[in-house]
């Protein structure tokens, strides 16, 4: 569904980085003597994430700014974000460099079940990379549902369901988007197993283009603002 727009965002972002680094290269060439110093600065500027300038860290919560398209570490953000988990896509964040008031904007939205499943599997995948087990498929019943159950309040503004009927909703969401968001395999011992169709965890981000189209975000002279 959103594969096309994600792809076009990525290309736009890559082009930005490319043109930025070109500009910086010509500046550093002018700088001449300092070119060595400038070069080491180019790489961090080209990545250009967060106020701290450090790279992404997939083990912690990071938010993407809707305006400058840079990632910000939770620990570098002043706004009281509340409980979140990594790889969420149901939020709007504007960094203080982009905000007309100089204050960060943050809003967490309800996450539809497919998004919660995606966030859950991405976190399970990252944990598995970290602990060295390097698994790509996760049990719906033993891993995905328990993850969502544990982190429900962090993942969505939707009130926690009082009955377990959402277990079936998770299953439907996973099956509906096989070969779009998820991969599927039946394991004789663990039952249905699901993974990510796009294994690139760094590409998981809010669909700000869709929010702009839906009028939740407005593009103004000042940048992007909440509608
Ligand atoms: Zn930072
Ligand atoms: Zn920004």
General description of the model:
It is a single chain. 41% of the residues lie in helices and 16% in strands. It has a three-stranded antiparallel sheet with strand order 5-7-6. The chain has a two-stranded antiparallel ribbon with strand order 1-2. A two-stranded antiparallel sheet has the order 3-4. Among the domains are: 47 residues; 90 residues, DNA primase DNAg catalytic core, N-terminal domain (Alpha-Beta Complex). The protein is α+β, with helices and mostly antiparallel strands and 227 residues long. One zinc ion binds next to loops. One of its GO terms (molecular function) is zinc ion binding. Keywords: Metal-binding, Zinc, Zinc-finger. Pfam families: ASH2L-like_WH (PF21198), PHD_ash2p_like (PF21257). It comes from Euphydryas editha.
Radius of gyration: 20 Å
Total of helices: 6
Strand content: 15-25%
Attached small molecules: zinc ion
State the CATH architecture of the domain at 113-202.
Alpha-Beta Complex
* Alpha-carbon distance between the two ends: 24 Å
- Mean pLDDT metric: 83
Please report the total strand number as a whole number.
9
Secondary-structure element string: HHEEEEHEHHEEHEE
Largest sheet: 3 strands, antiparallel
Low-confidence stretches: 1-45
Question: And the CATH topology of the domain at 113-202?
Answer: DNA primase DNAg catalytic core, N-terminal domain
Helix content: 40-55%
Molecular shape:
globular
Within the largest sheet, what's the order of strands?
5-7-6
